[in-house]
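Dear U.,

Please find below the material for section 3 of the report. The protein was modelled together with pyridoxal-5'-phosphate; I have listed the sequence and SMILES used, followed by the predicted complex structure.
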Amino acid sequence: MANPSVGAQEARAVFDVLKNGWISMGKVVLSLEKKIQKYLKVKNAILFNNGTSSLHASLLVYDIKSGDEVIIPTLNYISAANAVIYCGAKPIFCESDPKTFNVTPEILESKITHKTKAIITVDLKGMPVDYDAIKKKIKKYNIPLISDSAESFGAEYKKKKVGSQFNLHSFSFFANKNITMGEGGLITCNSDILAKKIRIIRNQGQNRRYNHTVIGNNFRPTDYAAAIGIEQLKKVDKIIFSKNQISKSYDKAFSKFPNVCTPFVPNYVSMHSWYMYSLKFKNSFISNKFKNFLLKKKIDYRVSFPPIHLQPIYKKKFGFKKNSFPISEKIANTFVDIPCWFGMTNTQINYIIKQVSIFLGNNK
Ligand SMILES: *Cc1c(COP(=O)(O)O)cnc(C)c1O
């Protein structure tokens, strides 16, 4: 589904770090942060041990606590909601747009109350949300905007790399992301004040050694993971370009079938990261049939994250039921991610195109 592209260069880089003897957070982490700042054209990049920690720290820096509400789309990975809970605050779930699978300014505004202390949107499948439209709509409320950009590293919004549009952007470098450190996370922002606080939170709340001014955590990445990140960053444009080519071939082959929707990409997305390529079916009967077909043809697939409000622990904690968010539930049940990763051979791509086209042709 998503083979990581790691090899000899990464191995050598890790070996060099191990040989040097300084393996916890040090110079290599700093060096990767500088390279990311340059690549994303953002003033600050703070590397984390994973993308869940970076979301948690994004809320800690705004002092989110018990009694506060944080708005998040239910159609997201569990991390953002859990991060709200770690802070003792309450996640307020919202729907997503059935066309883009992302939230809209109107959906977010409808959930704002006097308790709303932050909004976390998500660039689902690696496609940026409409940052400018959301910023414009939310401006008068003065609520911090955090983007869970875990899937959109290297994507572009209106010809600018994702990472400086909202107050904070949180990224992940988990193994199946477009580039990886095995485990890794990142916060980017243009505010130096926030960046300074985030660095303190990442390192046990210390502003200097053994002087703890806030309740932080150990969110530190290692230098040997950062060494992998440096090698991966060199490849990111190539990886994204290749994924764009694969999705173009899929679009071309599948968009002629009326019984499936290929991904809709709005104009403000000048570069999609194509973390996942999703086909959307009319109902779950046909999407289930499609999944069985793929299994038989030995084509790997992924279903989407189930909506967070339907996770057993969230149902138990907040009393959500089926149909609490019908649009998100329907989206989750009807789309299927098919392989789209750097390093796929033409034979593999053509096989998928051929088999999927046979299925679509036979199931009108
Ligand atoms: C991967 C991912 C995360 C979590 O990142 P980890 O590094 O696995 O903790 C959060 N949100 C989204 C949307 C993701 O895809």
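For the text of the report, you could mention the following: The first strand starts at residue 44 and ends at 48.

Regards,
Y.
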